[in-house]
Design brief:
There is one protein chain. Strands 3-2-1-4-5-6-7 form a seven-stranded parallel beta sheet, sandwiched between helices. A six-stranded parallel beta sheet has the order 10-9-8-11-12-13, sandwiched between helices. Helix content is about 40%, strand content about 15%. The chain has two domains: about 170 residues, Rossmann fold; about 160 residues, Rossmann fold. The chain is an alpha/beta fold. Helix 6 runs parallel beside helix 7, helix 6 packs across helix 11 and helix 9 packs across helix 12.
Length: about 350
């Protein structure tokens, strides 16, 4: 079966990591469709052909995908289309979307613009899932979010794999460095994390927080900036923006703790990366956290509204004060991370088109 990998919406973050992770493990006779600005960011395996879309804006890209791409798919002779996004062209032949986001994120949106964005995304996702030949999801818990039993009949869970990393790589831990990773959206709950660090500094005055993530949601960026200013945290909270993936892994390996207090995730890839590089994790105990870290590879907290900052501060303090606990989590993290393999992910995706 000739398959076109539609990656025209892939722009960065977890979607880019996922695409680069699976490409070496799918058939070389599949072809890749990308936007012109992504050519330098996607690692294309030798022998795989690449097609490039015209340079398009937001609306132009969606019009092209929905109305032009199905025609081109037939003209080019492709039997199926794998879309590295929640949605794809509704009239495509054998459409297979890869669900990367959860509709729960819509509940955290604060502004009209972001509510409209998430409403559009959820609507287009549901339409694509209804039309899809088969469906791939990067996390099992989203099956219930998008339709439960009806979706399960044609869905395959294809978790991301752990990054390539030699656990013997010499990285000196910075015992004062706390790290949070993820593009700045309202659901990431970064202002609460700033509060937690402020409280932690009463006992550990030298700790600092680095937040790595693209400033996607303007309202969430303003809320984060306001929290930093209100707590006079400019000297110990750094919002770094996006960084290359290899640099991110190196920074993660140096961090004492990776922290996530997100209120909604699909697959929280930074948690898996932290387990891989030997960095202890503090996170919530929601299903989207547990699917990644399991029950013993992280400090998982019941993050009740109103007490999140205190709980996170206490958990981080306990880790920083206990090397045996950190070592235990690191060992458990290596074991847990070993369950996630890009080769297996690629096999699942390939098999989806073989049956």
């Amino acid at each position: 079966m000739r398959v076109l990998i539609n990656a025209m919406h892939t722009s960065g973050g977890g979607g880019l990591v996922y695409l680069n992770g699976i490409l070496p493990h799918v058939p070389r006779d599949w072809e890749l469709l990308i936007s012109p600005d992504m050519a330098s960011k996607i690692t294309v395996p030798e022998g795989m052909a690449v097609r490039v879309t015209p340079k398009l804006g937001f609306f132009g890209k969606h019009v092209y995908e929905q109305f032009v791409l199905p025609i081109l798919q037939r003209r080019w002779g492709f039997d199926a289309m794998l879309c590295n996004a929640n949605y794809g062209p509704l009239f495509a032949r054998r459409l297979v979307p890869i669900v990367h986001t959860t509709p729960r994120a819509a509940g955290a949106a604060k502004t009209l613009k972001m509510r409209l964005y998430w409403s559009f995304l959820v609507l287009l996702t549901k339409m694509s899932l209804a039309r899809a030949w088969r469906v791939l999801v990067v996390a099992e818990h989203v099956l219930a979010d998008y339709g439960g039993k009806n979706l399960m009949n044609k869905a395959v869970v294809a978790h991301p794999g752990k990054p390539e990393w030699d656990k013997n790589t010499p990285f000196k831990k910075d015992e004062q460095l706390l790290l949070a990773v993820g593009d700045v959206y309202a659901q990431k709950n970064y202002p609460t994390l700033v509060q937690a660090v402020v409280r932690l500094r009463r006992e550990r005055p030298d700790v600092r927080l680095v937040i790595v993530g693209r400033p996607v949601d303007a309202a969430a960026v303003r809320a984060l900036d306001k929290a930093v200013e209100a707590h006079q945290a400019e000297g110990f909270v750094e919002v770094r923006g996006g960084v290359p993936h290899d640099d991110l892994l190196a920074l993660m390996a140096q961090a004492a703790v990776l922290v996530s207090v997100s209120r909604a995730e699909c697959f929280n890839l930074p948690l898996l990366e932290a387990l891989t590089v030997g960095t202890p994790v503090v996170c919530g105990d929601d299903d989207f956290f547990t699917e990644v870290v399991g029950t013993s590879a992280a400090v998982r907290l019941g993050l009740c509204e109103g007490a999140v900052a205190d709980a996170v501060a206490v958990a981080i303090f306990a880790l920083l004060e206990s090397k045996p606990l950190c070592d235990q989590l690191i060992r458990a993290g290596y074991v847990r991370a070993g369950l996630f393999d890009w080769r297996l992910t690629g096999q699942k995706i390939t098999y989806t088109f073989a049956v």
